[in-house]
Specification:
This protein is α+β, with helices and mostly antiparallel strands and 1305 residues long. Helices cover 31% and strands 36% of the residues. Helix 13 runs parallel beside helix 16, helix 19 packs parallel to helix 21 and helix 20 crosses helix 22. Its main location: secreted. Pfam families: DUF1081 (PF06448), Vit_open_b-sht (PF09172), Vitellogenin_N (PF01347).
Length: 1305
Amino acid sequence: MMGYRKLCLLLLLSSYTLAQEGSDINEQTSTCLLASRFKAYKKYVYQYTTESRNGVVGTANLRNGPKVSCQVEIEVPQACSFIMHTRNCALSEVSVTDAQGQPIYRQAPGSEAFKAAMEKNPLKFTVDDVTTVQLYPKTDEQVNLLNIKRGIVSALMVPVVEEGQRSIMSTVHGLCVTDNLVNGTTDVKLSRDLSQCDQFYSRELANSPLALLQKMHRPMSKLITSTQDCDYQFDNRGKHILKATCTEKHIYLPFSYEDNGISSVVSQDVSFQSSKRINNRVFDVNPSQSKPLHFEDPDDKAPVQTKDNAISTLRDLVDLAGTDLGEKRPSLFHKLVSSLRVLRNETLSQTVTEMLDISGWLTWQALLQCGTPECTSAILQAIRTIDGVSLEMDALVYGLSLQANPDRARVRDMLSMAQYKQSKAIMYALANTVKKFHKGEVTPVVTDVSKFMETLLKDCSGEILDDNHEFPTDSDEMSFLVLKVVGVMGEAMQAVSPSLISSILQCAKKTDIPLSNQKAAIQALRLMDMNDEVTSIVMDVYQDTQSSVEKRIAAYLILMKSPHQALIKDIVNDLENVNDEQLKSFLVSHLNNIRNSDEPQMYQLREYIELALTDHPSALNMVFDGMSHNYKIDSRLGSAHTNIIFDSRDTLPKEVMLETTLRVFDYNYDIFEVGVEGTGFEPTIDALFGEKGFFPDSISKVMYWAEDKAQVLKPVLDRIAPDRNRMKRQVPEDLLKDITNSLQKLMDEVRFSQAPEAITYFRLLGNEIGYLKSSEMRKMVETLNMYYHVFFRVLPAKFLSSLVSSTDNEVFAHYIFMESAFSLPTASGFPLKFSLAGVFAPGAKGGLVHTGRSGKTKLSFMPSLGLEFITQMGVHIPDYVEAGLEMHTNMYHESSINAEVIVNRNQMRLSIPAPKSNIQLLRISNKLLSVSSGQTEIVPSLVEDRTDSTDCQLLFSGLKFCKIMRYSNAPSMDKAPYFPLTGETMFAVEIQPTGDILEYTATITVETLREGKKGHHKVDTLKLMVKAEGDDSTEATATLKYNRNKKIFTSEVVIPNYDVEAGIKLAVTDSDAKENKMRGITIDITNRNIPQLSLVGRTRLDMMKNAMLQLQMVIPSLKTDASVTATLKRDEDVLMDLDTIITLPETSYQQRALLRYNDDRFEVELKSNMNSEIHKLIPDVTNYHEQLQQLIDDVLDQKVAKSDMKLRHIVNKGIEAGNIWLDKLAARLPYLANPRSKRSISDLTLPAVPEKLFLHFDSLIRYQFNKDKLAISLSLPLGGKKSLHQDQQQFLPMGRLHHWGQQLC
């Protein structure tokens, strides 16, 4: 019976469990849309594979990218709760591509580490609905591996969908709008435009902080199109997934044609293996550690942390100076910077130390443009190794603190620098970094900063914990600095260290420390919350009548930062008890300005003041002149207010502050605040301008001296100084000596009085930039003088010394002027990295060496300029597999000059060695690279329609000018991307040496020779010889001579290789004969001493009565002689004669124009005479005449188409018709009869060629002046009369216009 009871109890419990399970499943169906896919208390096993392929589609089959395959186990211990295990993961990458374009994979170097890391931690996640997925990873889970697991979960997120329905689904890209296509119950297709996903956006990566163009990741990410298509196969009941395939395409749009171009394709394959029931019902998670499903920013570091890549790249960059591969400089520098960015702190620290030993100049250029937190740490570490550059170190550290979004590592680095050196710039840099980093949470690194500040402050006790002999500091100065920087990061310090705040409050209460430190302690509270302790102590300081005015006002302003009604009431009620007039004046003015303000944020405070004034209505009606005051000016754009604080004992203000505020949309923004605090100026001012000061005493004595010496000035002095009798001084006997004694007294008083001290501080946009003391100003002047001496005297001298002592000098700069890098999420969880950088690399090498004794000077100057744009795109796995594509667009120019100059007594020799390598005047190239772990390959170019040409022309002996072109013609091929994605491209203009010439020399010799009989003629000679020495030597000589006695200048050019021997002779003639004062110039050009051209010019001028100008040109080889002669004679008559004579072979031409003019007549005579022997000029003219006649006959004898007539018949008939028409016309016009009788062209023969052609023309124009005169007088009707004298009407009456119109119509 007992056995049956146990059996019944077992059955009852089983039935209850099944019922409960069924109810759970139903509940799951109602709350989790994946309930039908993954049932509770079961485990599903899938085989998951994802891969990415980066390549240039349409150009080459070369691909690269990682591949991951894992066994995925999904446990469902509770409704809508899942545990995912990834086991047996394999990591591989593309090795080669076969002939069919399919990739062949090999195991990646970090495959075993990847497998262990993927298996280490299971991933728990929950699904509330299709849009709410929460992950609960382990705390030590790597971000990059978690993203891969996110991709697996995203691939399995397929709820029940309906045909043609658009739904919003949660994926690794966030919430995405998804188009559904359902084929029955077993096939579902999904498609997404990833730009419509809320978490698919560019995530900025490290770029150069010095770049002019940066942070363009958002607009540049729009140049990449991203789509995803998925196909899911379910079992026959449409429950769990049997097979899933997703393909995601990312295409870079520039230069792409359709889908062909730079692209990354990511695919996911999921295959169902098995399922079984499980007994696990435990699902414990920490809700505070939940993370969303969407992609998380990756940690992009190198798979292998080694310094070898950076060191080898730096060595290659250094070695470029001795090669002709200067075009590689921009890309090598970018590679160096990129290799630094992927290193972690431990590796980078060792790398930078070795890099500084190789080349400090290049290392600093790379570090400053790196932009990663690790590089910032390396910079701060390297700074400590530099000696003697304290100011530069401070400026660099302060500049690094201005970077946005600092992390823990940067705060730790800044703290280390501050612990190493407590300079003002470094302390402010630490404060700015902490202020930007602190987000309200208590972090260990900020706590360490507060402990360090507390150690330095020591309750303002004046103790220095560690006496740093390298950077000595004064205890009061250090306390003041600490209080200032704590005020910058006050919110963070108050959150992490109450003890530090207590220490600051102790400093505020002390009276035995400098007043500036007391005020700094109070002002350090300006960004902190005013709790009861702070308010109480600050109120005590304010009410302390023994404290100075400045300190009490500083406490008052801190209290007014967060006032309440009771505080305002106490301040107003206590105004009558304030004995210090300066304090009372400031309080009244400040409260009145608040009452008169119309700012909305002051409304509550105005009400508090008005309520406090009900008991004391006249408390703020007091007026104070010339005392401490608060001034405020309001406008629509903002406001400006000033605090001027006086001390009751002094006449100069102790403190002056100006603050401006900008008002935008009813919000106030602090623009800038500047303040000056000064002490100790009164003795100096009193010694200068006091009652017994130097200037009043000296001027008064001078005035009374002048009054005694010159009574006429007394009225003038009375008007200038009417009250001078009040301080009348005795007029000294020796005025100059007395003034000298007053000056000595002034110098003694200033010397023995306390040195004045002033403090200036400046805040910009609410951030305190720093402060400056007058003592520091003096040091700054000394420092500026030192830097002026260094930069404008020492360095130029050193530079010039090195420049003229060696030809091995070199200087190259590298600047990344444009850079934007970002990553995009992919379905596999691998990041898609894209970057675009522009690198500018100018430089030069060379120098000048001069040897005084030998007169030898060597000059070398080789400038170069490189500009390169580097585009990178590819899907990779950070820390494990590197993959991607790079496009390098390079522009490069270089030139060089190497010369040696030797100067002797009368000779200078210039020697230029021939180039040994090509000189690239301009080179523009573009290439595509496939980058994978450990190897870089050039993407093959399209072979079809490939152009590869080199066109060279001889520039001069030994050098060729070449144009090189290499490119593939994309438009000639279908489905090919646009240029330049078709492969390697290059256009170059360069100078190439032929190798036949070793050296070019130019020698200039200057000497004076003796020529003529007995050497009486001095001839100055300048000889230039240019020579190309080598296997194909060429020589050219140019000689210039000047005969001083004969005034003859001759030149000669001889080039033997080109059979050139030309000379120019220039002679100046001057006839001293009294009757024929003729001057002339003759230019003769000869070749091999044979005259080729002669130019002669002659002129004569005799008091404008007899003048002559003649120009003549003779070309013997062409038998040509031309001359123009102009003659002018003036006596009783004026005679001008212009005679032109031209002589050609068998032809002569002469023209003469003669003009005579006197009192009786004007006469012009023209004569022309031309003769040409045709048969002598053209010996074969008869043959030419016969050939032309035969051609005409052949043309006329041709038959007309479709007729029996010839062309001659038609022409003859036309001539006959013309003759008949002319006969009729001649009857009317008789003068046509004579030409008609002479016409005889019916035979159509050419006239005979004359033997001689001539033209004679003779004309005379004479005008005889008439001396007779005839006067003709014409009288005009009514001449000289006005209309008024003629009784004419002044008005003309007219009828109405419309009547006229009717009559006209």
